[in-house]
Amino acid sequence: MRITQTLRRAVQTRADATATICGNREQTWRELRDRVARLAGALHGLGVQAEDRVAILALNSDRYLEYLYGVSWAGAAANPVNIRLAPPEIAYTLEDSESRVLFVDDAFAPVVAQIRAQLPALEHVVFIGDGELPEGCLAYEDLIANHAPAAEAEVRGDALAGLFYTGGTTGKSKGVMLSHDAIVYNMLNMLPMLGYDQTAVYLHAAPMFHLADMANTHAVTAVGGTHCVIPRFDIDALLAMIARGKVTHTMLVPTMINMLVSSGKLEGADIASLRRMLYGASPMPEALLLRAMKALPGVGFVQGYGQTEAAPVVTLLPAEAHYPGSDKLTSAGVPAYGVDVAIMDEAGSEVATGTVGEVCARGLNIMQGYWKRPEQTAETLRDGWLRTGDLGYMDGDGYVFIVDRAKDMIISGGENIFSVEVEGAIYQHPDVQETAVIGLPSEQWGEAVHAVIVLREGGTATEADIIAHCRGLIADYKLPRSISFREEALPLSGAGKILKTELRKELAG
Amino acid sequence: MRITQTLRRAVQTRADATATICGNREQTWRELRDRVARLAGALHGLGVQAEDRVAILALNSDRYLEYLYGVSWAGAAANPVNIRLAPPEIAYTLEDSESRVLFVDDAFAPVVAQIRAQLPALEHVVFIGDGELPEGCLAYEDLIANHAPAAEAEVRGDALAGLFYTGGTTGKSKGVMLSHDAIVYNMLNMLPMLGYDQTAVYLHAAPMFHLADMANTHAVTAVGGTHCVIPRFDIDALLAMIARGKVTHTMLVPTMINMLVSSGKLEGADIASLRRMLYGASPMPEALLLRAMKALPGVGFVQGYGQTEAAPVVTLLPAEAHYPGSDKLTSAGVPAYGVDVAIMDEAGSEVATGTVGEVCARGLNIMQGYWKRPEQTAETLRDGWLRTGDLGYMDGDGYVFIVDRAKDMIISGGENIFSVEVEGAIYQHPDVQETAVIGLPSEQWGEAVHAVIVLREGGTATEADIIAHCRGLIADYKLPRSISFREEALPLSGAGKILKTELRKELAG
Prior knowledge:
Oligomer: homodimer
Shape of chain A: globular
Helix content of chain A: 25-40%
Radius of gyration of chain A: 23 Å
Distance between the termini of chain A: 50 Å
CATH topology of the largest domain in chain A: Rossmann fold
Strand content of chain A: 25-35%
């Protein structure tokens, strides 16, 4: 199976329906397919061959979608670069992936010269923006206009479809190799519980480079739905596009949902079309989820849990499990129908129901390995299982509860403390806007629980208030021993995950 | 991915829910998994190794399900034998597949001695019936009781999961090799449009050896639903089980649906629980479909079209397309989300929308090939595509309309005549219970259109009546030139397909 099968199906079933809405542009599936085939012809013209990496560094747009399908149509491999990276990190990604071509938009045109200077192997830069053509770049629309449509490349299902660099929340970013089969299989895993069909109108508000959004991309194309695109998460743009496109589905990370429901802008907004809100990519505090469910009463929430290495879905928390009082709200959901999930000890034996171990997954959606990193691949893919690095347990109904990233677990006074649990307690305080709990080195305890907190506007809670609030919600040994308050938002990865590594560095410095 | 992943998931999510209801037996998913693991242990004890074929010849039962999962759990390959075959044909299947073990029930115990005499390579026969143990057979319950549960076999996704012999409607039966990946992928293709979730209660009424039923088997297990089983299609047993099990889904072939809606037994039957009726495996006359929709107003109909070589689903006609006046009722539906479908000419080029060609399919669900028949494999799998041998066209909405099996098309006076179209016209006559249209050798026309008809009880239509009825519904050159009426039902394959080869033989003889 190949990714472009989804595009073929969309054209077969919905040729004249709207495929994309972006800014002042709209196009049908037939038009999109035609542009995709021409783009593939252009890539061949630039010398791109099977499985060659073609990178993109851009905000969201309809052209981002054309890039994704055009690269696949040409038989090449995508390398969607994290837009939050600093130029040296961008250069690292492009160099490590050996990308021969880079697509950039207006937002990233200014860094092109700097990146190119470090990358003699980068042959072409294609400019997909609307502004002035940067020096030395190829004009996207010219490429499309000047090339005949290419035939869909003959691609095996196990061919490399893309390199997806991990967020780097736990060290050096690694290129996850995903095959066409893995990406299509993940799409099939998502469809039954997400309720996509050809009436679906999906809004890309989270960054399109990230698999949390991209997995939806392929599902929406497979059903022949419509893609609405805004350049980046912005509450006004999001609400305006929901109203304009009659958006039915969107995917947001918890921090975005927090901003949305705290914005005061939902009242009076025309969002009656919205049926499903997907969330994931970082832990969802229960208090925030309940607030969001209350603020969006007509919307079915679905959580996706997974990681890049699983293309990305491992478990899904279906809409039916989302109701006040549900004991599954703090869960990551049940295994997707096509994913085999096991909770294992370090030796690779399954642990008993209810016991914490490492969440492991098996299925056609799992990565082929890390690009050029056989040792890390061997550590992560063991005996046919993906070791996710997440600690969790499965309850008697098959719901997986993530207690922490293995690397974020705090060991204090010999006790294991899951940072997520402490954060959940702190989030229940009404003054708290954002928090992250980490372990600080401590002579006495090994590690000491420390909370970093951003208060809501007008919030007045003190360290003593927060600790008093948590007492009774969690065991005493889990209570924060110190708290630092900050004005600015917590540092986020491109996927919206809080960068605890950054916080640890700041507090150490 | 492996088939037993579906069973693992059912135990994880629904351990204490009812897995099977059959006769006076019921069991939970946990109990079923335990029996399956013990059966796998027993198979290992009998010397069964990876990918060894283990056959079954039995009516439907809960033990059929245990067999399917037990064989997979052991890492072996299933060979579910068509129950309509004559003993020499059964022997051929077992010999060709080199099956080392055969499971039989009460219904087939009498033919065991005869089969065994022809098959020195058959090492063991396991008796899964309730009657007296036939001589030389192993008792199923003893095997289960006397073996410890085996660990789930380590099986690669591309390992052979089973040999599924084709119906032989067009020549010698061939063993279709399906991998674990193909069967699981097909399961994922079915889920979104069939509406299975953990509340599903599925009735096995069509024969379990056939993929039309078996594909549902894996879907129902994956969601953790319930399997209700009756030994064979029987209207009283079917209605009684729907009422007893609160059945939500079932799969019937068109001839069964015809019998059901003609039985006069629907009125007063307790079938309010039924949400979905799947149909397929042979063409559905529109008149019959409309009658069935009227007779079962609360039921959503879904058609599956495919073949054993596709594991089996290629296209699905969703419930939403089933309404009186829909122009899709004569269609086989749209491509399943994970199947790439193309209508091709003989040379392998796609034909234009609306043009008749051969229906071709591509995807992870496609067979690995025919067992020990590389030449027929090469004819059928060409350039990565499965050539189905069915003629059809795709309309502008992606709906595929099957016009005929390539081998059932009649060429009369130089014109191509699709037997299915003539049958559709005849079926609209109220006196007609069943019909099959074939070409008879004709000196004048090459072939001449001939209809075989079974009238309803009390039906009085004559040859002239039928031809007059068809005039105006179809072009004159397509009208039957002769008709034979018969009392007994038309000859059916094990899958409920009308055996036109038999009719041709009878009429020639």
